[in-house]
Design a protein that fits this description.
Layout: E1 5-12, E2 15-22, E3 30-39, E4 45-51, E5 57-64
Antiparallel strand pairs: 1-2, 2-5, 3-4
Length: 78
């Protein structure tokens, strides 16, 4: 199970600040296993766990709307 956190803030009508963090608890998630093509001496196939490339992913974005009319944002036209 992965716990994520997302936060957005609108300081002005044309500026959006967005923050996102995935896997807040830092768990070591296993999404499955990849098995080899040949058996070893015991008749078992070698395997390795498929894990996520990083423990956490952080993103901070600042989105600014550039337009001639500074008091109107683009949200109604989406």
């Amino acid at each position: 199970m992965i716990l994520s956190f997302n936060w957005s803030y609108l300081p002005k009508p044309y500026v959006i600040v967005y923050f996102s963090c995935t896997n807040v608890l830092g768990r070591d998630n296993i999404f499955g296993y990849e098995f080899g093509n040949t058996q070893n001496g015991d008749g078992m196939y070698a395997s390795r766990a498929i894990r996520q490339p990083a423990r956490r992913f952080l993103f901070l974005g600042i989105f600014i709307t550039l337009s001639k009319e500074k008091t109107i944002n683009q949200l109604p036209s989406l």
